[in-house]
Amino acid sequence: MTVTPEVKSLQIAALARGYAAGAYTPADVVAEVFRRIGERGDDGVWITLRPIGDVLAEIRPGPLYGVPFAVKDNIDVAGLPTTAACPGYAYVASRTAPLVERLLAAGALLIGKTNLDQFATGLSGIRSPYGVPESPLVPGLISGGSSSGSAVAVSAGLVSFAVGTDTAGSGRVPAALTGVVGLKPSRGAVPTTGLVPACASLDCASVFALSVPDAVTTAGIMADGLALGGPAGRLRVGVPAQLEFFGDEAARSAFDETVAALAGLGHEIVAVDFAPFLAAGRLLYEGPWLAERLAGVGDFVLSRPGEVHPITREVLSRGGEITGVEVFRGLARLAELRAETTATWADIDVLAVPSVPATVTVAEMTADPIRLNSMLGHYTTFANLLDLAAVAVPAGMTGEGRPHGLTLLGPSGSDGLIAHLADAFHRRQAERNPDGMTGALRQSLEEVTTRAPEPVVLAVVG
Amino acid sequence: MTVTPEVKSLQIAALARGYAAGAYTPADVVAEVFRRIGERGDDGVWITLRPIGDVLAEIRPGPLYGVPFAVKDNIDVAGLPTTAACPGYAYVASRTAPLVERLLAAGALLIGKTNLDQFATGLSGIRSPYGVPESPLVPGLISGGSSSGSAVAVSAGLVSFAVGTDTAGSGRVPAALTGVVGLKPSRGAVPTTGLVPACASLDCASVFALSVPDAVTTAGIMADGLALGGPAGRLRVGVPAQLEFFGDEAARSAFDETVAALAGLGHEIVAVDFAPFLAAGRLLYEGPWLAERLAGVGDFVLSRPGEVHPITREVLSRGGEITGVEVFRGLARLAELRAETTATWADIDVLAVPSVPATVTVAEMTADPIRLNSMLGHYTTFANLLDLAAVAVPAGMTGEGRPHGLTLLGPSGSDGLIAHLADAFHRRQAERNPDGMTGALRQSLEEVTTRAPEPVVLAVVG
Q: What is the average pLDDT across A51-70?
C-alpha cells in the first residue's frame, strides 16, 4: 500500500486542500491513519477498531469528505458493540445514534470506537478494563477521562476529530491533558439518543478536534441547531476571584499568563465570585446526582456487581443510599445556585477558568483514584448543572512541562461566542509558542499558523 | 355603622364605579364585607380575620383602591400567623410575601387569611382542623381544595378576589366547585417567595375572582410579568379523546354542552390523545413528587406526627419511601411525556377539559378521602408538571343541580390567550343562563352582563 508523504496534519481544512490539490485521496488518508494506529500498538485508545475495508467502502462526498473520526464507546453505532468500557454490559447496537448518522452522512469516515472511564463515570482515564490511554504529551501522564480514548486519538494524530460525552467534564479534562480542543455544546443542542446515560438529564455529546473551527464544524453537523452568534467586540471575561491549583504553582503561573493573553486580545478581565459555581459542582459528585447515575445503569450494576470496575462500583453504589427527599432538596438548592450565577452573568460575557487545576500521573491516580478524580473536576463539574456551554482549548505547557488548558464558558446558546474567543486565543498561542507542543499537536498548530486568520464559520448548521 | 345598600357586587369594576360615583366609600365596603362575614358565622372560611380597624387604616390609592381580598393561609403576611392549617406548625411571619406586598401597594385591602387542606396537600377541602368550608352553591357539597377558604370567600361575596396556591389543582378544583374563576398563571410568573412549599418546583400562586378580567388584573399585579398576548382569531381547541366522568352522566352532558358552546364561539374542536397528560398527572400523586412534598415540610411532619392531620400524614409519609433513583427515573419519564405533549401542542392552541370530572359531598369525601381526592384531580394534576397555564371558569349547573366548570390550558406564557377565551365563554354563559347560579355569584354574573363586552386588558402588568 502506497503511503503518500503529504498526509501530515489531519485538520479538516488541510485534508480538504490535499484532496482538492490531488495530493492524496481519502484512501491514502485512511491507510495513513491505520499505519499510525498500528505503529502505536497497544495504546489503550481503541475498544473496537473497524476493518480498513469497511472504512474504505464508505467513502462518500459531503462536507466531511474523507475526514477520519472516532466515537466514544458509550455511543451506539449499528452493528458494532457498545461496551461503555464494561465487557459484561456490552451489546451490539441495532441503531446508530443520530449524531453519528449525521457525521457519516456528511462523509466522515468512522475508524473505530474509543476507550473511556467505565459508564463515563470518572475524569481519570484509568477506570477501564481496556487499558489506560496515556497523554501523548508527557510519558506517564493520564489523558484524563472519561473520554480518554477520543482525546488521545485526536492528540496522537490518529483521527481528525472524535466524539466524546461530557457530564462532569469528560469532554474538557481530557482535552486539557492531551492538548486538543474540546467543545461541549449547550445542553440539548446535540441529540443524546443512542448514548449510554451517565446522568441522563445532564449528558452532552462533545467533540475533540485539532482546532476550534474543526470543533465547531463537526459539532454543528452533530447538532439539531448550534447557536453560532458572533462576538460582541470587547468582551467582559470573568475570572474566579478564588483560584485553586492544589499546590501546582506552575499551573498558577501558566493561568496568570493565559489571563494576560486574554486581556492582550483586547478583552476586559472581571473578577467574579466562584463560590456558587463550586457549590453547584459539589452537588454532582457529592450529592443527589449520584442517584441519577444509578438510575441509568443501576439495574446492571446492582445485578452483576462483579462485572463492574471496583472504583466505578464504589462510586455508583453511593447513589443507592440517596433518598427522594434528598434529590428534591438538591434540585431546590441547584435552583438557588443557578439564580446566584445568573446574577454573575449580568456582569460578564464569558467565564475563563483553568481546564484542570493540576495534572496527574497514572501512578498518582492509581494510588488515590477518588480524591484526585474530584480534584480534576474542580473547574468543570458545575457546567452542565448550570446549563452552560464550554470550550477547552490548549494553552501551552507549564514551567514544569505539563500541559495547561483554558476553558471558556458561557450561558446556554453562547456556543458561537465562546468559540470565537477560544479560536482567537488558540491562534495567538500557536503564533507565540509553536514549540510548546509535541507530535501531531505541533503539526496541527503549524497548520493553524500557516492558515490565513479566517473567522469561525458562523452559519447555523444541522 | 351605616351600610349603604348600593354595595352589592364586589367585582373590581363595579367597586371602581361605585367609588367614582360617590355611591359608597371603601370604608362602606369594608363594613359590608365584615357584615356579610358576621352573618355567615362559623363557616370554616377564615383562619385569621383581621380587626376591621386594621383594614380601615390601610385604605390607600392605587389600581386596586378599596378592593377587599383574602390570602390563603400558607402565604406569609408580616405580623399574622401562617398556619398552613396546622396549628403546631404555625409561626408569625416576619416578612410579607412579595406577591401580597404588591397587592397591598396597589391599594387592595386584606381582610384575612383563609382555610386550606393542611400543607396545601389535597383537593378535598376537608383536611383541616379549622373546619370545612362548604360550597355556597349546594348545601353539603365540598368546596374542594386545597384553597377551600379562598374560593368560598369569593363565591360567597365576602371579598372581590382571593389568593390561592396551585400545585396539583388547588387553584382550579375549588373554583369549579364554588362557581368562581380560578386563574393559575404560568409557573414562575408570580414569585413564590413567602409560600409554605407543597412541591416547591411546581407550586404556583393563583387567584380566585368573580370574572376573568378581575383575575387577570390581580394576577398581573402579583406577577413579575404576566404574558398577556392576544387571541389568534379562530382557535384550535383540543378536547380529550378519552373523557372520564366516573359515572356522573349529568357532568358528561354538561361538558358536551360546554364544548358545543366553545364551537359556537367560532373555534375549531380537535380531539386529542389525553393519555400522556394523565400519565404525567399520575407521577404527582402516585410517584416521586410525594418526596418533594416531604422535602418541604417533612422535618416538621416526621418530628411531630401527632400534630399532623391523619390523612395528610398518611399521604406525606409515603414520600419517605421514595428513593433518589426513583426520583431521577420519574424526572426522565416526565421529560418523555412532556415531549409527547409538545407534539400535541403543535395541533392545538388551547386544551379544554372539565375542571372536575364529578362533584362530591362532604359526607362522601369524609368516607373515602384518598380515592375521591385523586378523582377530583383527574383533569388538573398534570398542568404544573407539564408547565402549562390554566384558567378555570364556571360553566353553569348540571342537570342534577351540581356546579360544572371548564378549564382551559395552554403552554407556559399562554396566560393571555386562555384568559381571552375564558372571558368570552364566561360572558356567553352569563348571557344565556343568568339564573344558573346562586347568591353572590349570580350578582357577579349580572355584573358581567350589564357591562359592555370589553376585552381583557392586555397590558403587561407588574
A: 98
**pLDDT for residue A434:** 55
Tell me whether residues A325 and B298 touch, CB distance under 8 A: yes
Burial of A210 per CB tally in 10 Å (0-12, 13-18, 19+): buried
Q: List the end-to-end C-alpha distance of chain A, in Å, as a whole number.
A: 36
Q: Does B291 contact A at CB distance below 8 Å?
A: yes
The residue of chain B nearest to residue A197, with distances taken between CA atoms, is: B332
Predicted confidence band of residue A430 (pLDDT cuts 50, 70, 90):
confident
The one catalytic residue among B9, B72, B160, B186:
B72
* Cα B459 to Cα B231: distance, rounded to the nearest angstrom: 14
Phi, psi of B359 (to 5 degrees): -105, 160
Span B100-108, average pLDDT: 98
Alpha helices, DSSP H only, in B308-391?
A: 310-317, 324-345, 362-367, 371-376, 382-385
Q: Do B294 and A200 touch (CB under 8 A)?
A: no
Select from B200, B288, B335 the Cβ nearest to the Cβ of A324. B288
Dihedral Cα B84, B90, B91, B96, nearest 10 deg: 20
Q: What is the pLDDT of residue A436?
A: 45
Sign, CA dihedral B124-B222-B45-B93, equals positive
3-state secondary structure (DSSP) of residue B183: strand
> How large is the ipTM?
0.85
Inter-chain residue contact A295 with B319, CB threshold 8 Å: no
| CA A391 to each of CA A422, A454, B220: distance values in angstroms, whole numbers, following the listed order | 7, 19, 41
- Rounded to whole angstroms, the Cα distance separating B113 from B74 reads 9
Helix (H, G, I), strand (E, B) or coil at B58: coil
Catalytic residue among A124, A135, A170, A414: A170
* A184 a catalytic residue: no
Q: Measured between beta carbons, which residues in chain A are less than 8 angstroms from residue B326? A: 324
- Partner B contacted by A91 (CB < 8 A): no
* Structural contact between residues B204 and B167, judged by C-beta atoms closer than 8 angstroms: yes
* B335 interaction partners in chain A (CB closer than 8 Å): 201
d(CA A392, CA B1): 76
Give the model's confidence band at A286: pLDDT under 50 very low, under 70 low, under 90 confident, else very high: confident
Q: Which of B9, B148, B170, B211 is catalytic?
A: B170
The H or E element spanning position B298 is helix B289-303
**The one catalytic residue among A124, A135, A143, A146:** A146
Any residues with CB less than 8 A from the CB of B10 and at least 6 apart, and which?
A: B29, B33, B67, B68, B157, B159, B160, B210, B440, B444
CB B206 within 8 A of CB B443: no
Query: In angstroms, what separates the C-alpha of A415 from chain B's closest C-alpha?
Result: 24
Determine, for residues A322 and B325 on separate chains, whether the beta-carbon distance falls below 8 Å.
Answer: yes
**Integer Cα distance of A453 and B362 in angstroms:** 77
Contact A244, A423 (CB under 8 A): no
Look up the pTM and report it.
0.88
Query: Do the strands B46-49 and A204-209 form a parallel or antiparallel pair, or are they unpaired?
Result: unpaired
